[in-house]
Amino acid sequence: MASEVTSKEELASLASKLDSKTITLKDAVSKINSSLSGISDYDGINVSGKAGILDSNLNNVATDLETVVTNIKTYVSELTGFDVDDFNASGGSSANSVSYDDIFVTDGSAEGNARVIWNFLKAKGLSDAAAAGVLGNIQAECGFNPAAIEGNGEGHGLIQWSFGRRESLLAAAQAKGVDWRDLRFQLEYLWEESLDPNTSYGKQLQQAGFYNTSSPSDAAYYFHRYVEISNDTQEMIANNRCATAESWYSKFQGTSAGDVVGTSSNLSSASWASLSAAPVVASYASSGGRSSSSSHTTVSYATASSSANNVLHLTSVNTSSGDPNIDISKYHNNLEMGFEVTAGNLAYEVSDEDFELLCAIVAAESDKSYDDSLAVITTILNRCESPNWIRSHGTDPVAQATAPNQFVVYQHGSYKKYMDGNVPNTVKEAVMDALAGVRNHDYLSFRSNSTTSYSNNMITPTGNRYK
After folding, report:
1. Shared-domain flag, residues 293 and 440
2. Considering the entire predicted model, what is its pTM?
């Protein structure tokens, strides 16, 4: 009597062996076919024709068997949660292998859920430091309770998704037919929304160095700044999120669920810990609510070097200012008033149409000099990275620039005279440089030079007052 299959691992192992035998058979068929192809007719007998028929029959048998094995592998994967291809030909698997489904098993306690989150993030390829940084933030937000709801009813779940992000979370759960409070659903959603390096949030994390930092505190800070975006002060972030990240790192460092095998298409085979921290162009088409044109003004720069002239070298550009380099020496510091030119900041990608609109708004708001133009676009981009402004208008530069009751030149339409190619080159270059990561202040608002309600911080004598 045939022996009974006693475990999921054994069933997957048997399917793996069958797969291995099929590969061996196909190799043998290939060798036979090679031999048959060299046969020629003999003494008037159509030997080559007979060999051709045999060759075709063997190919059909090998193809049919391969189809059968593929179907078996699929069926076994559905039954076990294991991907048969993750098992070696001898039928063995890693001693630490675990199915993808099993990494979500928890006793429901805070630490049990924390362990599930850690194992999931490690299976995705995050470093220990990055995974701990996420844990530090989740503990601060919900105490590892995926069903947590903010007192005012706004924030939901692990990272307290709010406003439009909360609506997207709930819509995704409804579309999948699952309860939004499900821990597995929220983790997979978090990855797809924020932690996958290909998302707009992920690109910001990548640029900041989240994926390859060895510091749990730094990872917690980056995750908070670019994904969590709460109103916590720097002191609160350090004493709570960063400190607990270090604690989880100490507890879980060097551990994981093991070799996770399964059928989930969400599993990443890459290790994101090796990603470069060089500035990258971030696309916000998915978060700003504006459609993205197929044509883009894509500006990509290499990492800033420590050369004496402090130039960022241009690696690619579709809409050129005529200058092959970003030479930040054309902008002027005014440290006493808080204006300091910096490079390598967060970069943005916008469509050609949006680039033209931003340039027109900046031209209407500035005195058209490099310094004042850079100061205006810097204000817009600073808002894209400020929690309060993000909550109101998102991370799209155009959404910030065209927000109601913000930039008068847009509301009144005075920017229009700079459309259709009428923007001065100085303004165009300043906007392009800013989108590529150049800034000259940390202010979020300004008024015209004639106002007295703002400080005397003017980037140029005839420019705007900032605060």
Report:
1. yes
2. 0.46
